[in-house]
Amino acid sequence: MASTSSLSLSNSLLARSVSHHAPASHSSDHRPGLCLSAASPLPTFSGLKSASSSSPAQIPIAALRRRFLQRQIRAAAIETLAPAETSLVDNSVNTIRFLAVDAVENANSGHPGLPMGCAPMGHVLYDEFIKFNPKNPYWFNRDRFVLSAGHGCMLQYALLHLAGYDSCKLEDLKSFRQWGSKTPGHPENFETPGVEVTTGPLGQGIANAVGLALAEKHLAARFNKPDCEIVDHYTYCILGDGCQMEGVAHEACSLAGHWGLGKLIALYDDNHISIDGDTEIAFTEDVSKRFEALGWHVIWVKNGNNGYDEIRAAIKEAKSVKDKPTMIKITTTIGYGSPNKSNSYAVHGSALGAKEVDATRKFLGWPHEPFHVPDDVKKHWSRHIPEGASLESEWNEKFAAYEQKYKEEADVLKSIITGELPAGWEKALPTYAPDSPGDATRVLSQQNINNLADVLPAFVGGSADLASSNLSLMKKFGNFQKNTPEERNIRFGVREHGMGAICNGIARHCPGMIPYCATFFVFTDYMRAAIRISALSQSRVIYVMTHDSIGLGEDGPTHQPIEHLASFRAMPNVLMLRPADGNETSGAYRVAILNKKRPSVLALSRQKVPLIAGTSIEGVEKGGYIVSDNSSDNKPDVILMGTGTELELAVEAAHELRKEGKAVRVVSLVSWELFGEQSAEYKKELGITAQAVIAAAKELC
Amino acid sequence: MASTSSLSLSNSLLARSVSHHAPASHSSDHRPGLCLSAASPLPTFSGLKSASSSSPAQIPIAALRRRFLQRQIRAAAIETLAPAETSLVDNSVNTIRFLAVDAVENANSGHPGLPMGCAPMGHVLYDEFIKFNPKNPYWFNRDRFVLSAGHGCMLQYALLHLAGYDSCKLEDLKSFRQWGSKTPGHPENFETPGVEVTTGPLGQGIANAVGLALAEKHLAARFNKPDCEIVDHYTYCILGDGCQMEGVAHEACSLAGHWGLGKLIALYDDNHISIDGDTEIAFTEDVSKRFEALGWHVIWVKNGNNGYDEIRAAIKEAKSVKDKPTMIKITTTIGYGSPNKSNSYAVHGSALGAKEVDATRKFLGWPHEPFHVPDDVKKHWSRHIPEGASLESEWNEKFAAYEQKYKEEADVLKSIITGELPAGWEKALPTYAPDSPGDATRVLSQQNINNLADVLPAFVGGSADLASSNLSLMKKFGNFQKNTPEERNIRFGVREHGMGAICNGIARHCPGMIPYCATFFVFTDYMRAAIRISALSQSRVIYVMTHDSIGLGEDGPTHQPIEHLASFRAMPNVLMLRPADGNETSGAYRVAILNKKRPSVLALSRQKVPLIAGTSIEGVEKGGYIVSDNSSDNKPDVILMGTGTELELAVEAAHELRKEGKAVRVVSLVSWELFGEQSAEYKKELGITAQAVIAAAKELC
């Protein structure tokens, strides 16, 4: 392994060129959590009344406020807000609200409701709790934050902007949801440094957060020393009612409780509104009681609109509970501050419209032009740049000390942080001579998994309750569990979708974490949404899918994959691999490990297959290659192509044809995607071009 | 509507020829729930000890029993079984156990563990509670039963056999899991009359049961009269630990609690074992508390292995709770009776093996040869044939009275029971003249849904919290809710997978129930497993999938379907329809309604499309058809094909080419599957044959 200096270690992860044209950082002696200034000219709620006469909407603000209060009967009790002097916190919270409102207005598309309601928890989280370095979003020991309710991404972009991230400069907020911008319609980790995972499809974000927290707990257990907690961060997540309804969230949260992920803190935006209106129409379960049943610590903040102290206290309490994940239910008003649209569907997913924006400005006492960040807010947040740099450099010093004392562990951890594969790791892949006995590719997969477990330091994974069928256990390791988090076999239970989404979280924790997960190939149907996020978010998750094809046997059609190969070949940025024997199975694992920016789906047989002469690990890398050929001058009479368990049939057919004197080439097309990426010359060399395929098809018709 | 006599009504549903070579039915004055006979020669547990010396396994039965007891520490407390005289119930329960053991042994494949553990609840349910007519499995007012833990299907087949169903004769049990048998490896409604839904993929069965119970509650609310409860049945479901872990089950159970489905009774086989071993490794949540949080009534039967009275009492209690669904957690021992394998993974999914079968026979005091049904058991169960016939004929009489008093309602209900579509229903489909203004196909879909709501009496459905985007509301109806179950708009919340599986249950309730469900097309990824079951189980569910293609807009790639068209075209028995305009949208609904044995997926646009001259409802039925053509003698220079929102582009391109003097044919290929089913002549007439496509491709290469 290259000897990376520990000081430059996390900088080496700064994969994108992050410009440093940030505003000059002001050191600040303001302490988080204190009201910093009463100098703001902004009116309080009572002050708003006097401004009513100038409302262009021609509705007296007092009347608007009455209406607003009526709207909130079932949401947070705004009555509890004592008329207080406007604080810097209020100012910051309103900045967040209006950055979201203005960006959505500017795009004429997006979701203002969540940012307006969640601005208080967002402010408290990012300004007072989350540990980050805005100038290096990839600093290893940062806290992780996931916006599971991804449609509210302007909340996150506004927070990243205030925090000083270069991905969310003012011009980026102004190009929200525009082609080519860094601020897409839903958070995308591959577009916006500072965004950890790709969310939007509901429920998966909280499952990603479970994966991130799992990775932390695992690495901490392996690398921390009594005198040095070198891995030590929290994972925060904001999720909404929609996420809570999704089964995938439930699956992952059940596991989080089981695993006792004490450093996972979920903030549940309990706003009672989803797209179809009041959640009363479809969602009346007792969420808190359910989470208690799942083994979580549960806190309820009743006034999420203004209860900064309650939010703060809840997060502190959550941090202190070490043996359970915490769910903080925070009751808020969606679209807080919009006199006519708050607490209704209308504010969820559309721009407020100029008139309502104006009314909201008046209501919240925000006389500023669009995208304005008041100086006191700017100044206050600016401390995060130097503080973030300090956090990282302190950690780098800590790492240097750790490295000196625990050289071996430090080297391993470093490789996990950077994602650098250990030299010679590929030698661990089993190879098979042509006279080797064949076996089921799931058995050969097991050999790969176990060999890789020896050389890849953060290769972790498991099955959705089919370990003994998928043959996915790493025999030298025990089970990752609440009290044995240093182990590497993950027992997901019968929760395919949660499994996939958790693996996405693990993969996104840091470049060296390599998760795999297993079930029957047919049950990719349960986890397809997670596989698509793997593909989209460029996450290297290895899907070990056994019981391919009719070889599945007597379990019958409910368990028999048919359309699955075609369906994954059609999914962008997925490698669909169907190895034919031992060498190709090893080749498939090689490809899966080396492709750091895409997931691989391996279709593996339940039944035995022979070792086929001519197969190779290298061949797999090209997607298609010649397994055998008795033609000369690149002029075969016939080219037979096969994949997986059908390659054997192609080989047998070739044998028969050759007996009849034919020149036959057998090609293994183990991955259509990889083959498609080869040069035109290579394809021509193999005789597999569009023209050739068409000509062959014509002969057959 | 044809005037079906009410007496022949349910017989008309006997779609398969059910042979009547059942054993002569004995009328019986034995009442369900009473122990009928103490005359059985079978030993009690204490009697077993004396038989130990003859064990061929050479292990004293006393020692086996000790071992067996040890295995059960975490499972049911076998100690509570007082040494009692062997009852007929014991005999029946052991018959069920051994029919399962013997069938799995015979097939050398299958899952004996669940049937052995669930035989007591299975016996009590089928023999004492479930209302059915074995000679007409399709009798409308029967109780519905779903084995959500489908792998344990030998339990169901054994029960159907004892109950007198012609689908599960002894020879059928002997051909369990064999090619062409009526007893496949997982329950399939289309193979085995008496099986209501297709299960196996875990978690979905309980969601189907929610759909069945929803259909009952809805129809009861609409058709029952104070003096006549013409729709009145329960829905029972057995589910296991695996089902409990799956998110889809959670989604559906949350809705069942919300809807207050009082006649849904779920029996949870709490056996603590799944494929990966003790559920302790992945599933430690408090399930009972969770179900309370979901609004269910929860009962715990601690001794599911022998506690017949407790099981009985629990089901009685469950039936008496009218405002909530009930979950009865029944603690059992998987593989009960197998001395060496019970309470372990070993008994879950493999044949016991001759030696262990023998030991189990000894242990349970079952000296009989394989597939033996003792005479007293036979005699006892035989009453279900006359009783079932009586139940049905009593109901038929009831219906006749109902019909006399409530003619109009009876006619409608009859059409729902038979599935006969009202004459002229198709006239409700909107048609559009070529000069009509265009619109988004989701808007045109809304017109169809609302028109169909007027003419199809049991057209019910809704969206997964996207009603205002999918435009899926039936405006003349309110929401199906706990207290308004007569309404037809279903609010599924953000629960796509649960939605699909619930719709499968609704569709399988009776032939006239026509469920539709809606979300964004991309989110079929969340519900794909349910769509596949729709296809496999031949269930007419209409999937209203809006926001097709890049027309989705700024929501970005997480919300943008790409591979979805291809992936559903690859799924067997699904109609993938991509209408181009208003006429084709109506055509798609026509096809979806008429195809009673397959689901349809409609991909609908968010954005406006023009009405295209030449489109038609009839054209859609053929899958592909000529929209415009200026060629003569069937010799166009070019054939342009398009689907959905791209048909407009093909039309525009044709316009340009024709200006250049070309003879251009434009073909709309709205459904590849339907087109594939057309005659060779028709395809040739259109000029779209494999040869023509290949030739065209060759030109392009």
From TrEMBL, chains A, B:
Its EC number is 2.2.1.1. PANTHER family: TRANSKETOLASE (PTHR43522), TRANSKETOLASE 1-RELATED (PTHR43522:SF2). Keywords: Magnesium, Metal-binding, Thiamine pyrophosphate, Transferase. The active site is at 496 (proton donor). This is transketolase. Belongs to the transketolase family. InterPro entries: THDP-binding (IPR029061), Transketo_C/PFOR_II (IPR009014), Transketolase-like_C_2 (IPR055152), Transketolase-like_Pyr-bd (IPR005475), Transketolase_bac-like (IPR005478), Transketolase_BS (IPR020826), Transketolase_CS (IPR049557), Transketolase_fam (IPR033247). GO terms for cellular component: cytosol. Substrate binds at residues 111, 348, 442, 469, 547, 555, 559, 606. PROSITE patterns: TRANSKETOLASE_1 (PS00801), TRANSKETOLASE_2 (PS00802). NCBIfam families: tktlase_bact. It catalyses: D-sedoheptulose 7-phosphate + D-glyceraldehyde 3-phosphate = aldehydo-D-ribose 5-phosphate + D-xylulose 5-phosphate. It holds the Pfam family Transketolase_N. SUPFAM superfamilies: Thiamin diphosphate-binding fold (THDP-binding), TK C-terminal domain-like. Binds 1 Mg(2+) ion per subunit. Can also utilize other divalent metal cations, such as Ca(2+), Mn(2+) and Co(2+).
